Amino acid sequence: MKKLSCLFLAFGLLLPQAAHANRAEVMILPPRVVMENNDRYATIVIRNIGNATGDFTVGLQDMKMLETGMIVPLDPGEAPQYSAMPYLHITPKSMTLKPGETQNVRLMQRVPENLEPGEYRTHVNLRLVNDNTDAPANEAGKDAVIAVKANLVIIIPVIVRHGATTLSMGIADARLSHDAGGMPSVDMYLTREGNRSSMGDISVTYIPQGGAPQLIKAFRGVAVYRPIPHRFISVPLDETPKGVNLAHGRLDIVYAAQKKEGGKTLAEAQLSLQ
Question: Quick one: residue 259, left, alpha or beta (phi over 0 = left, psi -120 to 50 = alpha)?
Fold first, then answer.
């Protein structure tokens, strides 16, 4: 089973198991690491939130963003662009965590002075290599217990910014569409220029003819990573109130930096519904 999203990747392999088999589960914070010019290290907290002891490995892995926004591994033989991996050291690289235990993992940055200004990125790869390690061994004559050996991977981005960085964002080809069930969405491209990535939130506000504006969708955590120049995004308008008629008026679309990064408007567009 494979699940993949903007800054999260998880693989789960589920083998036959007893009804009450224990399992290690993991939480990692923060979900995204940004290291600015003066940051020498960052700390990631890993916590076993399951009910079994787990063995974990931690490493760095270069990945790429597709135009669809998916984060995928590099193709075989593909060279990474603007990788932060050469400038980071991660420790520890393995650990065993009992249920409820936490482990701090430190990322240390060492960037050469002559490095070209801009943003560089890699990903922390947290892998559960063995769980249920504290399950008792089967005794002769007793029913067999099938242990779960889960292969779970969680990946979070690590961004290193060096020197002066620039970013210019835009919204292109915005349009209203509907799926087979009639659910409306706003489809668009977020365009990016500069030597850094963006992370922001999209808001869609309905402006009726002669009426008051009404926010109908907030879509959070949308990244456009360097080096791709644009990313396609479809924002479902699944929270539109029943009284809103999307056949008239207009939609105001705003892409803004997240509040923790200042909340500045990065791009905006208007979509006429007439």
Answer: alpha
